[in-house]
Amino acid sequence: MSLDPKLLQYTSTHEWIHFADRPGGVMTATVGLSDFAIHAMTDLVHIDLPEPGRGVQAGKPFGEVESVKAVSDLYSPVDGEIIEVNMALITPDPKTTFVNLDPLTHDPYGIGWLVKIRVKSGGQSELFDYATYKKQCDEAD
Question: For the chain, what are the domain ranges?
């Protein structure tokens, strides 16, 4: 099930974030890459995501995505710990030995999410609502 892009928050580096409360008062965040960024990079060929358990800091890289044009860092919007990685994006297809990035390109707000983070209070990048983020993207075009 895809999230509604209009209900998400965004960073200036094109990551989206969705916050959710888990039992026990644990705040988690699902992080992905915006459709705008994916289309701007075109033809994604590789992604490097961290292992669960790794700490992340707001505004610091946690991985990379590579297209035929360039390699781009992926930035964490919050301080926390990686609790889950979208294995569908990093597990090679046994038939071809290639990683299939189609979920990321075809459904970046659903099955194309990147990581889930257990949020630690304190650090957070500046986040934008959809309208502000869309305006930033329109000005970049």
Answer: 7-120
Sheet of 55-56: strands edge to edge?
Answer: 9-10, 15-22, 26-33, 115-124, 78-85, 55-56
**pLDDT single digits (tens) 81-138:** 999 999 999 888 777 777 889 899 999 999 999 999 999 987 788 999 999 999 999 9
Q: Do residues 63 and 103 lie in contact, with contact meaning Cβ atoms separated by under 8 Å?
A: no
Q: State the Cα–Cα distance between residues 53 and 67, nearest whole angstrom.
A: 27
Classified as helix, coil or strand, 73 is strand
Q: Do 114 and 91 touch, CB atoms closer than 8 A?
A: no
CATH 2.60.40.10 fits 7-120, yes or no: no
| Residue 133, H or E segment | helix 130-140
Over the stretch 5-42, which tens digit does the pLDDT of each residue have? 999 999 999 999 999 988 888 899 999 999 999 999 98
Structure tokens at 11: 């960073």
CB atoms under 10 Å from CB of 105, counted, come to 17
Q: How far is residue 110's CA from residue 37's CA, in Å, rounded to a whole number?
A: 15
